[in-house]
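Methods — Computational structure assignment.
A single polypeptide chain was analysed. Its primary sequence is given first, followed by the predicted tertiary structure written as structure tokens.
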Amino acid sequence: MPGAPDQTTSDADLVRQAVNGRPDAYGELARRWAPRVMAVCHGRVRCQASAADLAQETLLRGFRDLGSLKSAEKFGAWLRGIADRACLDWLKSKQRTQVPFTQLGNDPRPILATGDGVGAALEQADEVQKLMAEVESLPEGQREVLMLFYYADMTYQQMAELLGLSTATINARLTEARATLRKRLGQSQRATHEL
């Protein structure tokens, strides 16, 4: 397709193209940045479903407000700022009255666990749920770098630039997050085996 952006086109060039009336250029930016925005949002709000909504809201706000970006080279930091504001708005909202299904008291999982395949799938889902609960309980700085590293597959350097931190700080936070998770999940497994 003539004029379509390719992988070698920089974010700044895509921003300029989008501002000049090429919405497909913003589509490419959204495709590139969606995993990173999702990681930032999930790290902030600790809820995957809400993070997905907030990531989409961030990308829409970015498209709507792209003309206000003063420096095309700073698109990533600008978009992260939008994600931070969207998450803050969500966190401050009084409409957050979601009750996790597990708190309702009628957990359907024992009824479903009849076959070996179903039981194994439910056990794996439980493990993933436990892991995500532990990740979501990490301090914000650790949670954020963990999400960016695993969700968005970002390098330490990319995270440092996006978050405005040194690579040493990124490394320290990621190391602390992993150690905390290993400790918590190890204690959880020992408690389960003692039952």
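Note: The chain has nine helices and no strands.
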